[in-house]
Design goal:
The chain is α/β, with parallel strands linked by helices. The protein has a single domain, classed as Rossmann fold, CATH 3.40.50.2020. The protein has six helices and 14 strands.
């Protein structure tokens, strides 16, 4: 199921506007913080789908029956661009276990590329709610490889994807091969260039958050 959180007017759209804005992007601290804020909003929305039990909590003046989440959460992100978004999710799911995937686009001289995964570190995930975050969902190839890498570690009860901006093509691809996964996005862009960059998109999320990198 696709959840486009940007379809309704909210402060989320302000955060998305700022991370897209070339005049604001130069402020790395603000870019990272806005990514975190979007992660926090996604975490809040995902929390509505989880399981809860009521517990009796003693207050200074009496006893209150309060719902407590029962799901075990495993937050997963793709290094390095996903870290700010991951931190936003972690600030709400603060007791979650964490997994990290090191992968990148390995470009070839003919203009094509492949997804090269260097390593995966992951806790046990059997029966858990796995939330995979990556700020940009372009072709869907990185996300496909990330999901396949994670499920080698066990059988989660449910997988959620959190992306800030997704291409229509990438969404259709991921939905087709993983129909049971819920996808949460802040914006959907129609265009994908010949080099698989989202337009209008926002540029390279990793570079904007942490600085430019040396190219191969």
């Amino acid at each position: 199921m696709l959840h486009n959180l940007g379809k309704e007017n909210s402060v989320l759209q302000q955060f998305v506007s700022e991370i897209r804005d070339i005049d604001v992007q130069g402020d790395r601290l603000r870019f990272r913080r806005n990514m975190e804020r979007i992660g926090e909003i996604a975490a809040y929305e995902i929390s509505k789908t989880l399981n809860y039990v009521h517990k009796e909590i003693e207050t200074p003046l009496g006893v209150a029956s309060c719902p407590h989440m029962t799901n075990r959460i495993v937050l997963t992100t793709i290094l390095r661009a996903g870290l700010p978004l991951h931190n936003g999710l972690l600030s709400y799911f603060d007791m979650a276990d964490n997994a990290f995937i090191s992968s990148y686009r390995k470009h070839h001289k003919d203009g094509t590329f492949e997804i090269d995964t260097q390593y995966v570190t992951c806790p046990p995930i059997d029966g858990s709610i796995v939330i995979i975050s990556d700020p940009m969902l372009a072709t869907g190839a990185s996300m496909k490889q990330a999901i396949e890498s994670i499920i080698e570690f066990g059988n989660p009860a449910k997988i959620h994807i959190v992306s800030v901006i997704a291409s229509s093509l990438g969404l259709k691809y991921v939905q087709r091969i993983f129909p049971d996964i819920d996808i949460w996005i802040a914006a959907e862009d129609e265009e994908l260039t010949a080099k698989s960059y989202i337009v209008p998109g926002l540029g390279d999320a990793g570079d904007l958050a942490f600085g430019s990198k040396l190219q191969d």
